[in-house]
């Protein structure tokens, strides 16, 4: 039988399978296509329809490699290319989606360029995302296309470009829910909370707008937490008392208490709010509240974000629950680029509180290997300086000698370090502390008097 007759036969059987799928007979359709693919594994229409059905059934297509390898990039039907890439995207296989986008050369169409821009943005490949976005002329784009472009700009932290793009979409379709959503997110990204609120309040009240008002409230709360903490650090450096330095954070946490009473576990913003609330409570030193609220989350500790686990670990240590603190700190050790001297110090003290002196000593030896010695400047001609973590480590070394009851060695350790860094306040305070422990109050007073000669930091 001639080849074209075989092809015609296969097309008839393939179309029968598709009709069965549309009629709701999914298993029968899949079985029919399976059988055909066993006989004709390189038939591009068969592959396209089979993978399209698998994608429609919410199956991860990366698990179908035996079919993917038979795809011919040139002959594979156009109608199945974007859905295939979209499936990879839906399952967050962004790099795989990008690879297939380039294999299919999807950027030859406007929708393809937009999708590729979004994929690069979602993969946090900022350079390539910018490159693709620069090739898109927003004039003549539909509202839906403009929303996708704005979304890509927002993901790569170009909120002004995102806002300018979505405003064009809003001019086209003021009633579109997807346009409204992106518009609000872009306003949030530039901190324009009031305008976002006005926009939502002027829109028809729907489940979406109610949810977005809550998203807006939680986003603003998160920003207020960060601003209040930054303000505390500034005022503290200026020498203001804690009562004044913490005033703004106290107001924000009071607002957080009110939001907390309105929140339900089913709310989409529930976890995001609680994570930032716990972070703020920990910074304020309200360790009991951190533990109580984190327990209410009813989520295994290991599944929480690293900064939340850190807050919980610090709180357990403050509440004299070193065993739980130890467990929490240890979950942070495997986080990429997260552990720093604050984590190591917390874990060290959790060992000391449990009298696990051997583990504490082993940790110190390991930390000496892990933390950098120097901090280098990007500026030309600027000398390297001692890394802040190294300074903290040196202080912890001395305190370890003191905790091990080697007070004489601890005193010598800090005396030597103060000679090397006579303006280091932390070392001076630690030396004075050890001198007091050695019952040398006059020497401690003399040591502390060094602080009077240190110029305040501008």
From TrEMBL:
Superkingdom in the source lineage: Bacteria
Name of the protein described by the UniProt record: Tetratricopeptide repeat protein
Organism listed in the record: Acinetobacter baumannii (strain ACICU)
């Amino acid at each position: 039988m001639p080849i074209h007759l075989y092809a015609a036969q296969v097309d008839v059987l393939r179309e029968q399978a598709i009709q069965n799928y549309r009629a709701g007979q999914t298993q029968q359709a899949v079985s029919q296509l399976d059988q055909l693919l066993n006989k004709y594994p390189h038939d591009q229409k068969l592959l396209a329809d089979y993978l399209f059905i698998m994608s429609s059934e919410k199956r991860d297509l990366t698990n179908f490699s035996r079919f993917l390898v038979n795809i011919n990039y040139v002959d594979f039907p156009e109608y199945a290319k974007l859905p295939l890439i979209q499936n990879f995207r839906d399952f967050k296989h962004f790099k795989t989606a990008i690879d297939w986008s380039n294999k299919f050369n999807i950027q030859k169409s406007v929708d393809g360029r937009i999708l590729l821009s979004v994929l690069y943005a979602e993969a946090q490949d900022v350079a390539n995302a910018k490159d693709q976005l620069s090739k898109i002329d927003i004039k003549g784009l539909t509202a839906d296309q403009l929303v996708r472009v704005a979304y890509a700009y927002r993901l790569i932290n170009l909120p002004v470009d995102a806002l300018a793009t979505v405003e064009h979409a809003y001019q086209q379709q003021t009633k579109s829910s997807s346009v409204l959503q992106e518009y609000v997110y872009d306003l949030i990204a530039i901190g324009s909370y009031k305008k976002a609120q006005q926009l939502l309040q002027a829109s028809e009240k729907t489940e979406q707008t109610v949810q977005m008002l809550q998203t807006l409230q939680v986003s603003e709360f998160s920003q207020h937490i960060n601003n209040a903490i930054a303000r505390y650090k500034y005022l503290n450096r200026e020498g203001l008392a804690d009562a004044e330095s913490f005033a703004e954070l106290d107001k924000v946490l009071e607002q957080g208490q009110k939001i907390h009473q309105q929140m339900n576990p089913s709310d989409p913003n529930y976890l995001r709010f609680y994570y930032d609330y716990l972070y703020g409570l920990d910074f304020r030193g309200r360790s009991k509240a951190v533990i109580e609220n984190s327990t209410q989350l009813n989520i295994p500790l290991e599944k929480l974000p690293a900064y939340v686990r850190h807050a919980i670990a610090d709180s357990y240590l403050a509440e004299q629950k070193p065993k739980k603190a130890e467990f929490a700190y240890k979950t942070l050790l495997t986080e990429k680029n997260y552990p720093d001297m604050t984590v190591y110090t917390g874990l060290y003290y959790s060992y000391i509180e449990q009298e696990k002196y051997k583990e504490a000593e082993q940790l110190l030896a390991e930390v000496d290997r892990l933390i950098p010695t120097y901090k280098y400047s990007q500026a030309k001609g600027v000398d390297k300086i001692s890394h802040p973590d190294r300074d903290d480590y040196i202080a912890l070394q001395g305190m370890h000698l003191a905790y091990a009851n080697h007070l004489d060695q601890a005193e010598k350790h800090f005396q030597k370090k103060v000679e090397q860094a006579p303006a280091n306040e932390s070392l001076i305070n630690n030396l004075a502390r050890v001198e007091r422990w050695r019952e040398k109050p006059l020497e401690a007073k003399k040591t502390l008097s060094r602080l009077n000669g240190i110029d305040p930091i501008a």
